[in-house]
Amino acid sequence: MELKNYMEDLVLEKLDDVMAQYPFCCTCDLCKRDIATLALNHLKPRYISSRKGDVYTRLDEMSVQYEVEVIQAIAQAIEVVHKNPRHAEEE
């Protein structure tokens, strides 16, 4: 049996669009990964395990409120990562 948190796909799909609204934000791979991780940790997971579950989740995704929650979580994560970037640790 395969399990998938559909929120991962949705956050990654919207990440670049939201980040484009924050020109001060670092776009290195580490910062992008930290932003996505932080956003996912603040969103309710949406696990799917079947084709039917995938269709249901995609229909649910069309809700405006659902999309707003994802965008807000990404925006909040951008603010946190911008103030505390880890990429300096890697250099």
Account of the protein in words:
It is a single chain. This protein is mainly alpha-helical and 91 residues long. The chain is built from five helices and two strands. It has a two-stranded antiparallel ribbon with strand order 1-2. The longest helix is centred in the C-terminal third of the chain and has 20 residues. The chain is elongated, with a radius of gyration of 14 Å. The mean pLDDT is 85.
Question: What would a concise description of this structure say?
Answer:
This protein has 91 residues and is mainly alpha-helical. It is built from 5 helices and 2 strands; from the N terminus they run βααβααα.
Overall geometry = elongated
User: What share of the residues does DSSP label as strand, in percent?
Assistant: under 5%
Q: If strands are numbered along the chain, what order do they take across the biggest sheet?
A: 1-2
Largest sheet: 2 strands, antiparallel
| Helix fraction bin | 55-70%
Discrete helix count: 5
- How much is the average pLDDT? 85
Following the backbone from N to C, one meets helices and strands in this order, namely EHHEHHH
Q: Cα-atom Rg, whole angstroms? A: 14 Å
Distance between the termini: 40 Å
Structure class: mainly alpha
List low-confidence stretches: none
Count the strands?
Answer: 2
